[in-house]
Amino acid sequence: MAKKSKAKKRYEWERRIWAGLVGYVNTGEGFERLAIDSLNWIGGDAEADLEQSEDIKAGATLETLAVRYRENVRTLLTWLARPDSRAAGPACAFLMQHGNSIRYEWQQAAFDPKDKDSPLMSEWPQWIGSVVAPLCRFVKDQIDRHDVDGEPLRDVIPIGLCDREGCGKFRVIQLYRPGHIFCSNLCKATFHQSRKTKKAKAEYMREYRAVTEAKTAKTGRLIVRHKGGKRGNV
Ligand SMILES: [Zn+2]
User: Fold this and answer.
1) CA–CA separation, 22 vs 67, rounded Å?
2) Same-domain pairing of 152 and 189
3) pTM
């Protein structure tokens, strides 16, 4: 198998952090994984450097910090999903307070002239103000790609807020197309159902039952497949 390019690895890494952010805000879980992944992003050494974070040094556990920061990170994602929302001010303040609270150490790397990918320098965090500082730095790096380098917004910040009213969950946009975005197939189906007339709903359910019954008969187990949904962001 061909070796993955640096760009591809980086893309996958970014996607993993975005998915971690969305999972953490949606469910309250996965905070430790997210903290470690984003610490790696700033050149940190996973658990060893996590212990250097000021809030952990002050005695807080990752569990209490996960609870402490969740609403702030929700505000941050709300703004990224809807940049014109009222979340913008508080989200930027949170981003600046934490994203700025990292001090780095720089050193020359042992450059290998035979390897064109050999790095010139290495960089790692020497002081970390809080456990969310690395993930704020990650978000700021992605914002710079859009604001400074001019990359398309949803290529570098693939965050959407579910379009089903009252849901409030986020999702990572896999491939951006105009249209609605949902956190799950369930929200997508509920959204489209709510827009149908009574007659169309009954018709849809009849067809839906016929399809699932046929599938159950054929395979002996139920495979739910949403019929007629246009390909979109879900
Ligand atoms: Zn939803």
Assistant:
1) 15
2) no
3) 0.79
Sign of the alpha-carbon dihedral angle for 147, 149, 153, 156: negative
The pair phi, psi for residue 119, each rounded to 5°, is -75, 155
CA distance 132 to 216: 47
**Full residue range of the structural domain in which residue 70 is found:** 6-161
How many domains is the chain partitioned into structurally? Answer: 2
At residue 231 the predicted structure's pLDDT band, cuts being 50, 70 and 90, is very low
**98, 133 contact by CB (below 8 A):** yes
Cα 168 to ligand 1 centre (Å): 6
Cα–ligand 1 centroid distance for 9 (angstroms): 29
Q: How far is the CA of 230 from the centre of ligand 1 (A)?
A: 17
Q: Of 17 and 48, which is predicted with more confidence?
A: 17
Question: Same structural domain for residues 89 and 143?
Answer: yes
Q: What's the burial of 118, exposed, middle or buried (CB within 10 Å: 0-12/13-18/19+)?
A: exposed
Residue 168's SS3 state is coil
What's the 167 CA to ligand 1 centre distance in angstroms?
Answer: 5
Cβ atoms 176, 159 nearer than 8 A: no
Are residues 62 and 145 both part of a single domain?
Answer: yes
On the 0-12 / 13-18 / 19+ scale of CB atoms within 10 A, 149 is exposed
Residues 67 and 128 in one domain: yes
